């Protein structure tokens, strides 16, 4: 989604090599470039930099985060799948949100862990492209699922009498399928446009692959990638949050005209969604804007932290918000974990 960053914003990528690589000539940007024979490097080097000085600490931290994410999200998903009382639209959407968190974590953490313990931090070109596709579909689906959840809350609060007829199981499955397909189609086109680019360098500036990190390695014109990057950014980062905010604005309007009890219950349900949306969009915007500023503007550690928080905060936060905030899921998870005297817990939680 960050493919709109212009390659000429980073001239050091193009002119920092004394010898041409991968069979290219130094006049790579000539008019006959498009008709030449291009190739891709078999391996790409990732930019771990100072992290390798304390790599065992980061390795332990990565492993801990991965285990917490897998256990917590799996517990919420299992609780919803195993108990029929939780198989309602709101809980089904929560399950898919947790599933998306698992999906993003499985493509991010294992590769990161292996590279931290390796002598050289590399990834194959094919592996990098796969990670680009998975990382961007994970981020995009996070937003589209939140949009579907906001629609569910809008129908529940603003049209309570028609909720069961509108949000049937068939409708829920259609909404989830649409949320995934919308992002998959957009990201597939994005990745196909990236694959066509020849690469004149093999150094990724981040600890994982994203679309912009690969596009910036190309020496040919990337106007098509830049334009489509802007379009896809608007389609996902622009339109989706606006739709979510419109839904919650309508919900807020209805709540203001309702009783205090109804207003408190509605806000309790909607607040986690808004918190998730706010930090997720803020981090994506940070990722888009950061490359436009000098790399020395922020400390190295802070840059790394900000670049990975969507893979850390969101998958950990979802089970905490929806697993412990929503009483029904919390009780079922405690039952699965073998908690005793559930009757007493119901009165205390």
Automatic annotation (TrEMBL):
GO MF, one annotated term: odorant binding
Transmembrane segments: 56-79, 91-111, 123-151, 172-195, 227-253, 274-294, 300-322
Protein's GO biological process: detection of chemical stimulus involved in sensory perception of smell
Membrane topology: Multi-pass membrane protein
InterPro entries referenced in this protein's UniProt entry, alphabetically: GPCR1_Superfamily_Member, GPCR_Rhodpsn, GPCR_Rhodpsn_7TM, Olfact_rcpt
Location in the cell: Cell membrane
Ranges where the G-protein coupled receptors family 1 profile domain occurs: 72-318
Superkingdom: Eukaryota
Keywords: Cell membrane, Disulfide bond, G-protein coupled receptor, Glycoprotein, Membrane, Olfaction, Receptor, Sensory transduction, Transducer, Transmembrane, Transmembrane helix
GO annotation, cellular component aspect: membrane; plasma membrane
Principal location listed in the UniProt entry: membrane
Family per record: Belongs to the G-protein coupled receptor 1 family.
Protein's recorded name: Olfactory receptor
Classification of source organism: Eukaryota, Metazoa, Chordata, Craniata, Vertebrata
């Amino acid at each position: 989604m960050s493919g709109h960053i212009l390659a000429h914003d980073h001239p050091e990528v193009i002119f920092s090599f004394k010898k041409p690589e991968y069979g290219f000539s130094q006049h790579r940007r000539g008019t006959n470039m498009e008709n030449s024979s291009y190739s891709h490097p078999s391996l790409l080097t990732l930019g771990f930099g100072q992290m390798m000085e304390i790599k065992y600490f980061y390795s332990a931290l990565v492993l801990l985060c991965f285990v917490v994410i897998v256990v917590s999200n799996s517990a919420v998903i299992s609780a919803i799948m195993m108990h029929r009382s939780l198989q309602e639209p709101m809980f089904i959407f929560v399950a898919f949100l947790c599933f998306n968190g698992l999906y993003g974590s499985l493509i991010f953490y294992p590769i990161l862990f292996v590279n931290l313990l390796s002598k050289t931090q590399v990834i194959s070109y094919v592996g990098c492209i796969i990670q680009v596709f998975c990382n961007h579909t994970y981020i995009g689906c996070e937003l589209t699922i939140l949009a579907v959840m906001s629609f569910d809350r809008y129908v529940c609060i603003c049209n309570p009498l028609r909720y069961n007829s509108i949000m049937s199981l068939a409708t829920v499955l259609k909404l989830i399928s649409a949320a995934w397909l919308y992002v998959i189609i957009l990201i597939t086109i994005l990745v196909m446009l990236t694959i066509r680019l020849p690469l004149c360098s093999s150094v990724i500036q981040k600890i994982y692959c994203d679309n912009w990190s690969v596009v910036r390695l190309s020496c040919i014109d990337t106007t098509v990638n830049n334009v489509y990057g802007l379009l896809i950014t608007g389609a996902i980062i622009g339109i989706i949050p606006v739709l979510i905010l419109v839904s919650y604005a309508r919900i807020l309007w209805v709540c203001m005209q309702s009783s205090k009890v109804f207003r408190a219950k509605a806000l309790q349900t909607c607040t986690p969604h808004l918190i998730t949306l706010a930090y997720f969009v803020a981090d994506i915007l940070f990722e888009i804007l950061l490359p436009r500023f000098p790399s020395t503007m922020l400390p190295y550690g802070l840059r790394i932290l900000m670049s990975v928080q969507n893979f850390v905060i969101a998958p950990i936060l979802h089970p905490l918000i929806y697993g412990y905030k929503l009483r029904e899921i919390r009780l079922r998870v405690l039952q699965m974990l073998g908690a005793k005297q559930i009757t007493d817990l119901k009165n205390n939680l």
